[in-house]
Write a structure and sequence with these properties.
The chain is mainly β. The protein is 7% helix and 32% strand. Strand 4 and strand 5 form a beta hairpin.
Length: 196
Amino acid sequence: MSFITRGFSGRSRERDDRLPPGQTLVSDFPVLSAGPTPEVDTDEWEFTIRTESGVHRWNWDEFMALKIDDVDTDIHCVTHWSKLGTSWRGVSLDTLFEDIETEQEYVMAHSYGGYTTNVPLDELLDGKAWVAFEFDGEPLDPEHGGPARLLVPHLYFWKSAKWVRGLTMMDQDEPGFWEQNGYHIHGDPWKEERYW
């Protein structure tokens, strides 16, 4: 397993009230990945939500026809960097779940390339999460998760799965890739939920 940290240019000594404990402000956008960057063409991209009643799916054109939100938010990585005032465009999980009924309360996000991460469903709804396809006015670069990534900015950034391809509903919370390897099951940066 390799880690890509290209773009990390150091740490600022400024302190900002928007920074959670233990975080340092950066002006660049560090690239951290577990494994190689998958190449996913939008012609082949598909997003699914699997529930106890079946599979709901969208291809790229169907996805882009949904209501699109502009999102301005701060992001916080478990490796201690934070980037403030980031700008994204994407489809809210509220929109994707609008016509989906489920009694299951937990989600496993799946990515192209095999990455997984778990998130309780209530952490994804009510304006808390998106499937993002643009960053800073440009299509999302593959190194940052393009063509689309999960964006859950109120949790540490490993929960914002790059190259997202779908969500699977679950009856109970189960750990994903990093959670199985010692990261916290929840990941709230304001509580410093970094590790088990």
